[in-house]
């Protein structure tokens, strides 16, 4: 398998493999493709420790780097996962939050490794794309939510 021209590199303290395996088990078209161990000691680990993990999340190639505690995840980067209905929204949200993650506002949550996720039903993004009053109503409804309620967004779209 050829290496992708562009790969997202995600910094972890020491749990890149556990994170990648969780993502692979949670999201479709996701898998761990390789685990590479350090050939010698490095600032945050020792020879033989897992250094990098190659994986995909919903078809997007990623590299997890066990770089230590020097850097932390921030909301400046997030995965946005489009969902088709409430059941799919609930499944992903509950998997992330229920595995040591944290809820946030407007469809955002963090996994236990600090990576941010936007679990975003298509009914919301479609409403925003329409614009005008329909977008405003959907947007205002979303502002009061943590996990997105598909039925409430659909009702807001109608007015």
What is the H/E order?
EHEEEEHEEEHHH
SS-based structural class? alpha/beta
Main pleated-sheet profile: 4 strands, mixed
Low confidence ranges: none
Task: Please name the CATH topology of the largest domain.
Answer: 2,3-Dihydroxybiphenyl 1,2-Dioxygenase, domain 1
Strand content: 25-35%
Continuous helix count: 5
How many β strands by DSSP? Answer: 8
Helix proportion of residues, in percent? 25-40%
- Average pLDDT works out at 97
CATH architecture of the largest domain: Roll
Major β-sheet strand ordering: 1-4-3-2
CATH class of the largest domain: Alpha Beta
Overall geometric form: elongated
N- to C-terminal separation?
50 Å
- Total domain count: 2
CATH superfamily of the largest domain: 2,3-Dihydroxybiphenyl 1,2-Dioxygenase, domain 1
What's the alpha carbon Rg, rounded to whole Å?
18 Å
Describe this structure in words.
It is built from 5 helices and 8 strands, in the order βαββββαβββααα. With 159 residues, the protein is α/β, with parallel strands linked by helices. It folds into 2 domains: 1-71, 2,3-Dihydroxybiphenyl 1,2-Dioxygenase, domain 1; 73-159, 2,3-Dihydroxybiphenyl 1,2-Dioxygenase, domain 1, CATH 3.10.180.10. It has a 4-stranded mixed β-sheet, with helices on one face. A hairpin with a 2-residue loop joins strand 3 (50-57) and strand 4 (60-66).
């Amino acid at each position: 398998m050829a290496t992708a021209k562009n790969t997202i590199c995600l910094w972890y303290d020491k749990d890149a493999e556990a994170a990648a395996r969780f993502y692979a088990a949670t999201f479709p078209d996701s898998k761990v493709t390789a685990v590479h161990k350090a050939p010698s000691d490095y600032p945050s680990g020792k020879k033989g420790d897992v250094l990098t993990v190659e994986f995909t999340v919903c078809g997007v190639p990623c590299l997890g780097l066990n770089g230590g505690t020097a850097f932390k995840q921030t909301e400046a980067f997030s995965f946005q996962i489009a969902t088709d209905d409430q059941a799919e929204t609930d499944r992903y949200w509950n998997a992330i939050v229920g595995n040591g993650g944290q809820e946030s506002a407007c469809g955002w949550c963090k996994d236990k490794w600090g990576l941010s996720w936007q679990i975003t039903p298509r009914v919301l993004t479609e409403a925003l794309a329409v614009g005008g009053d329909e977008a405003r109503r959907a947007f205002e409804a979303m502002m009061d939510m943590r996990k997105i309620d598909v039925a409430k967004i659909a009702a807001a779209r109608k007015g």
